[in-house]
Design goal:
Length: 349
């Protein structure tokens, strides 16, 4: 029994009941049975409007109900209740339509980071890919399109900061997306750290971690699990294990690293800023948050101390932190307050 889907279904039914209550309260139809039928049909219509599952349909229905109740309280004495319903519907569909566009529109985000450290050349370019969740929220065909775009930026190195695949990724999709990574053209290679979803939460996937690792390796991608590699004479790359699993502290990982080298840390979840900053690493690249996904999840996750940041760039003492909003998203078909992205980061003197 998959309790997650059961929970989705219960939420959706509860929201449908709320909608029915709202329809009946407004007495749009003299017949109560008619109100119930119309509400249920309307709920299914919402679900069909986007290629939605119950999860996203619940979000749509929830947003619609919040808006309807809000405008009802605000305007009920001033305008007709049918007009309130119309206003709420238009605002809801505009908002969700834009959020759907934001999730599916991938932008190239540029950052320039200045350093006093010797980097061997005038500029060193990193391309960051994160949270593609292949086969779940992005197809391997679409993924290849962004690989071609990244090549046009001529990166020196490409880093993948986790959640490349998901529980619902098929082996075929994983293989196709791994093959797409072999098309990347770089001077120093393609490096990857696991996210919380890459090795799956459940056991129903038709490939295991070993097969994923093998496929990535076959296509020239190097997986780093609490490993330190000397990328160039001046730049060190530190790939951390995801915090979902037992892992080394950052202090331990940097112990043997030359303090004069420019140190880049890959850490899927943006959650260890204090220790990473104390360890004096220069740059930390993360993903995981999908740019906050849907308001106010990102803001709440920082307020509650679940994440240290949910998007963009932040500096703490000598360390710069960047959180990528992800090439795609997790189960959400919507993103608010941000677009999907891949990052181009230039390190210069
Ligand atoms: Fe994640």
């Amino acid at each position: 029994m998959n309790y997650y889907y059961l929970l989705e279904f219960i939420i959706y039914v509860l929201l449908t009941l709320c909608l029915t209550y709202q329809v009946m309260k407004k007495s749009f139809f003299s017949d109560k049975k008619m109100s119930i039928v119309v509400s249920i049909l309307f709920s299914f219509f919402l679900m069909l409007l986007f290629p939605l599952d119950f999860f996203n349909a619940s979000i749509s229905l929830g947003v619609f109900l919040i808006l309807w109740i809000f405008f009802d309280l605000l305007l009920k004495k001033k305008i007709d209740s049918r007009l309130i319903l119309g206003i709420s519907s238009i605002i809801c569909f505009t908002f969700l339509g834009y959020a759907y566009y934001c999730k599916n529109h991938v932008i190239e985000t540029h950052y320039r980071i200045k350093t006093d450290k010797e980097i061997g050349e005038s500029s060193f370019r990193i391309a960051q890919i994160s949270d593609s969740h292949i086969g779940f929220s992005m197809s391997s065909t679409r993924f290849l399109k962004y690989i071609n775009k990244i090549n046009q930026a001529h990166p020196d190195v490409v880093v993948i900061t986790g959640d490349f695949v998901d529980d619902d990724t098929s082996k075929k999709e994983m293989e196709k997306a791994s093959y797409a990574l072999s098309k990347l053209k770089t001077k120093y290679g393609v490096y990857y750290v696991y996210g919380n979803h890459d090795r799956g939460y459940h056991q129903y996937r038709d490939f295991n971690e070993e097969e994923l690792r093998k496929e990535l390796g076959k296509n020239g991608v190097i997986v780093l699990q609490d490993e330190v590699i000397q990328l160039t004479d001046y730049i060190t790359l530190i790939g951390r294990e995801d915090q979902r699993y037992p892992r080394k502290e950052i202090e331990e990982l940097v112990k043997e690293v030359d303090p004069d080298s420019f140190q880049i840390v890959l850490n899927h979840q943006p959650t260890d800023y204090e220790n990473e900053s104390k360890s004096n690493v220069d740059l930390v690249l993360s993903g995981h948050t999908h740019g906050g996904q849907f308001f106010p999840i990102g803001q709440m996750s920082v307020l509650l101390g679940i994440n240290d940041s949910y998007k963009g760039i932040k500096t703490i003492q000598n360390t710069t932190f960047i959180v990528n909003t992800g090439l795609s998203d997790w189960g959400f078909q919507f993103k608010t307050g941000t677009f999907s992205e891949y990052g181009i980061i230039d390190i210069t003197n």
